[in-house]
Design brief:
With 427 residues, this protein is mainly alpha-helical. It has 2 domains: 170 residues, Up-down Bundle (Growth Hormone, Chain: A), CATH 1.20.1250.20; 202 residues, Growth Hormone, Chain: A (Up-down Bundle). Helices cover 82% and strands 0% of the residues. The chain is built from 19 helices and no strands. The longest helix has 30 residues. The protein is globular and about 50 Å long. The relative contact order is 0.14. InterPro entries: MFS (IPR011701), MFS_dom (IPR020846), MFS_trans_sf (IPR036259), Tet-R_TetA/multi-R_MdtG-like (IPR001958). Keywords: Membrane, Transmembrane, Transmembrane helix, Transport.
């Protein structure tokens, strides 16, 4: 599972940085390029919850294969796009079905115990982040060749086809057995999960195992089941977790939104240095994912405390960046922010699955992805408004949002602690 995740982001990060250059070479204006980019984000926003929930119903293998193959189709069409219209069409299957990493995380959640989940998720994020670091370098080299963009797109599509083969070869009988054992081991917590999610856990779905009739159900039955599960999420008391995720996502996006421009205006630093600094932060993020095991043991597997402390550190570091008097303070804040944000992202996912229950992990991860997509839509608008006042406006606003998230976590401390006690007794 780690290998396809690495190849996934490696292939995508080869293509994505080159897309704006390609669409402009096709004669599109900045406005048209922006509209196509926004439509992709909107498709991701609405499709992530439905695809995640669908993976709970039909099983991880079938849904993951469909998403990988249709994403490969999208990148293949991108490699044949000689007009703006074809370029826009190629983004449709990718916008709807490029949720391969979310489904892979749901599959990992099915296979491992709650105690080991933060460690495994951290390693998963580290593996995919390595692909994201290496991909742009290879893509930049390939684009120097004749018809380099088209070649890069075809290579990306081929990588997705290779991933489909790897997923097909996975030992699914072990997944099903592991899911049953995991389900039996979590019987003690099912009462809390059922209370939290109302009707979220349908009897027809198991943890990632494909039931014999689910693939052959009427599409209308599958749609009705998806809508029922989404209604269950809406009726649940998980609102505070998703709100914390939204606020922290927007805060971090505001930090990075005008990073290069702000460094230039505040310290006279060239964009090249800003690029090196972001690559440095990404490399540290990989290291942070590998250190999650010792950190969770240090905190005695208390995900809530890790999330609270990492969010507090993130808020402090963004404040340090906003008030930095020299470039070295920016380097210092970027160094530790790479650790705090990586740990925070992993912990918020683990908390969603712990409180919400594993039987609907695909749905929960899909909703979480939709929440993050909302942040990606809102953050540029807030950044533009805040930047009218000062280059430090966006990170200063991010500090305020992070503080609100910390206050929400403190206000709901009793809920997390009570569930932590139930979890500890079952372990």
């Amino acid at each position: 599972i780690f290998l396809p995740s690495f190849q996934d982001l490696f292939g995508v990060s080869m293509v994505v940085p080159l897309m704006n250059l390609h669409i402009k070479s096709l004669g599109a204006s900045h406005t048209v390029a922006g509209i196509i980019g926004s439509l992709y984000g909107i498709m991701q926003l609405f499709s992530s919850t439905f695809v995640g929930c669908w993976s709970d119903i039909v099983g991880r293998r079938y849904s993951l294969l469909v998403c990988i193959l249709l994403s490969a189709l999208g990148y293949f069409l991108l490699g044949t796009s000689t007009t703006v219209f074809l370029f826009a069409i190629s983004r449709v299957p990718v916008g709807i079905f490029k949720h391969t990493l979310s489904i892979s995380k749901a599959l990992l959640s099915d296979l491992v115990s709650e105690r080991d989940r933060p460690l495994v998720m951290g390693r998963f994020n580290a593996a995919s982040s390595v692909g994201f670091i290496l991909g742009p370098v290879v893509g930049g080299y390939l684009t120097e060749l004749e018809d380099g963009f088209y070649l890069t797109s075809f290579i990306c599509a081929s990588i997705f086809l290779l991933n489909a083969g790897l997923v097909w070869m996975l030992p699914w009988s072990e997944e099903n057995a592991g899911s049953r054992e995991h389900q039996q081991g979590n019987k003690g917590t099912n009462g809390f999960s059922a209370k939290t999610n109302c009707d979220l856990h349908s009897k027809s779905a198991t943890n990632g195992a494909v039931t014999s009739g689910s693939l052959f159900q009427s599409p209308w039955v599958q749609v009705a089941t998806v809508l029922k599960r989404i209604k269950g999420i809406a009726c649940s008391d998980l609102w505070d977790i998703f709100l914390v995720r939204l606020l922290m996502s927007v805060a971090i996006l505001l930090y990075y939104s005008n990073f290069s421009l702000a460094l230039d205006e505040r310290f006279g630093v060239k964009p090249l240095f800003a690029g090196y600094l972001m690559s440095y932060s990404s490399a540290l993020g990989v290291l942070a994912g590998c250190l999650l095991g010792p950190i969770t043991r240090l905190y005695q597997h208390n995900t809530y405390r890790i999330l609270l402390h990492s969010s507090t550190l993130t808020c402090t570091l963004i404040l340090l960046y906003a008030s930095a008097l020299s470039i070295w303070m920016v380097v210092l804040s970027s160094t530790f922010l790479a650790f705090s944000t990586t740990i925070g992202r992993t912990c918020i996912i683990d908390l969603e699955l712990t409180i919400g229950g594993n039987e609907a992990s695909g749905t929960l991860l899909g909703v979480g992805q939709s929440v993050t997509s909302v942040g990606r839509i809102v953050a540029p608008l807030l950044s533009g408004i805040a930047q009218e006042f000062s280059p430090c406006g966006p990170p200063s606003l991010g500090v305020g949002l992070a503080l609100v998230a910390i206050l929400i976590m403190n206000a709901n401390k009793q809920k997390y602690c009570s569930h932590g006690n139930i979890k500890l007794k079952n372990q």
